Amino acid sequence: MKNTNENVNQKVKLDDVANEAGVSKTTVSRVLNNRGYISEKTRKKVNEAMELLNYHPNEIARSLFINKTFIIGLIFPTTNNPFYGQLIFHLENISEALGYKVLLCNSEGREDKEKSYLEMLQRHQVDGIIAGSHNRGILEYDNPQLPLVGIDRYLSENTPVVSSDNYDGGKKATQLLIDKGCKKIIHINGSPSLETPANLRREAYEDVMKENEYYPQSYVIGENVIETIFNENPNIDGIFASDDLIASSVMKEAKRRNINIPADLKVIGYDGSEITRMLLPELSTIQQPVKEIADLAVQLLLKQINGETESKIEWKLPVKLIESETT
Amino acid sequence: MKNTNENVNQKVKLDDVANEAGVSKTTVSRVLNNRGYISEKTRKKVNEAMELLNYHPNEIARSLFINKTFIIGLIFPTTNNPFYGQLIFHLENISEALGYKVLLCNSEGREDKEKSYLEMLQRHQVDGIIAGSHNRGILEYDNPQLPLVGIDRYLSENTPVVSSDNYDGGKKATQLLIDKGCKKIIHINGSPSLETPANLRREAYEDVMKENEYYPQSYVIGENVIETIFNENPNIDGIFASDDLIASSVMKEAKRRNINIPADLKVIGYDGSEITRMLLPELSTIQQPVKEIADLAVQLLLKQINGETESKIEWKLPVKLIESETT
DNA sequence: GACAACATGTCAACCGGTTGACATGTTTAT
DNA sequence: ATAAACATGTCAACCGGTTGACATGTTGTC
């Protein structure tokens, strides 16, 4: 049996298509990029050759020349989280619709991983980065060689940040608990060392509490914190958790202690992702406009990529109070 | 003010590093790739130059030459789902540890999207693809130019598939309901038109039912199906849902109808992802070994990428029955 | 019949690294 | 003293497309 060309399993390249179609390399490139004059007949011939040979243009070669990859890097703690899972879904979706692909990076909130991802994305010549995971102080963010947008995270002095209206959300949540008659309301938040807009949730909580002449008291989530809260505050009757997962842990612990929700204790969370709404519909929460956040973030990034300027740095999108059975 | 080189905002390239360090292009490349002889002194000089200039080697140029990108494509319905979110997290994590990056594709289960993603990934010269979303019949999968691994999906005759032991899972779930005394057990599954190993869950259900001389009855999930099930089967006392989200919908509907779980109706799901366990711990379920699935899938893909052969096609990993309050 | 628009080809430079061949000079070991 | 190992440089081809300049020929139109 002859070892013909067709048997050799090597990638088909533009030259092969040109040969097959009996035209020049340039003509094939013209067909691919729709430039210059091309007759319908030739176009068809070339397309047929591409079909026949199962040709896929090498985007790497193209990227190298045009100095653009149409790839966006996404750096977030993890897809294994209802909120980020939904956010990343939308980010990818919107990007795809606009002709961009996404490289996914799960930083797990670790600075070292984030740093090496950042380096990796730059090596890969991504056109821009959207990041929602962050420990401020990573030098590379301050010296951005790259279009950059943060989601719910300050990345550097002049990097745009998109977030839900955290202050308003915190206000709505706290106010609801007060309106429902809670006297001893406690707030649980993530690590406050992070300089994130999400801290505004706590700020709003504190402000509203003081306005109503209550004493604000915040705990930071961590090992056994929820147990501690119940132990240290026997008269607790309201909890504002800064995300729904924390809220669900609170509910679990309350159940274990036979504390009745909402009769004895009212609970409200934050995020309101689709999955949480589906699996835990009874939880009251402040819902973030996830799709709108993703939309805006991508838009702002593309603006930067296209060299358009935009002076506004902080973008806050309205939240929605969802009252359910836990309040 | 002079417009020195430093002011020009252009990407630093290998040549610049060479100039800065006062060595040749080749030497810099040798440092980068650790080949040939290099003195410590020179290595240091070069590294300092890279640091100083904030140099990031252009991986695109490198990929083009070595004909390898170290990128893996992931095609799944959506990250906005606890199971896929967790799976994708692990896939990315493991890949990263092995020096690969991932391009994320949310197919939404749509054939057209999947097709265009497949094409896109080939253009981008990914080294391989792991796919868990699929409508069989996409030609490209049958004619793979590319290393390929399926998760819970048959992609083509000889593409490796990794999945949980669906048959055993279906058996365990059904048997549990029977053991708990259910008489009228109904199964709800996803679209059965898909040729997926997950169909074995239904098969096991049917087999176990018949063995115990019960009449198996399956519904396909869709608009209002759950309501229909309750309406058509007033004496129903057991439901095996082929995933936890469906199970949670069943629970919701039961609550609406004041049907007590588990007294009047027992429910068991499938997946047992971390998020579901956290938000809906009361649900009994069959837990898939997500991390192990991801691990194996990546391993099998890398084997293909490295040209090693592996004749085993179907890989089944053991599931775990989690008994909770709904049974 | 002449000129514009259309169609295609040839050729080479370019994107930014990698690599092999080869030359030259310096150390080190024996 | 001499060969082997070490260190670095020069040069050019290469990866697979893209693009611009330029040439040549064909149609279509007024």
UniProtKB/TrEMBL annotation, chains A, B:
Pfam families, A to Z: LacI (PF00356), Peripla_BP_3 (PF13377)
User: Is DNA-binding a UniProt keyword of this protein?
Assistant: yes
For this protein, the record's PANTHER family field holds:
LACI-RELATED TRANSCRIPTIONAL REPRESSOR, RIBOSE OPERON REPRESSOR
Q: What is the official name of this protein in its record?
A: LacI family sucrose operon transcriptional repressor
Write down the InterPro entries for this protein, in alphabetical order. HTH_LacI, LacI/GalR-like_sensor, Lambda_DNA-bd_dom_sf, Peripla_BP_I
Q: Which residues form the HTH lacI-type domain?
A: 12-66
Q: Which domain of life is it from?
A: Bacteria
Recorded hits in PROSITE patterns, A to Z, give: HTH_LACI_1, HTH_LACI_2
Give the SMART domains listed for this entry: HTH_LACI
Entry keywords, A to Z: DNA-binding, Repressor, Transcription, Transcription regulation
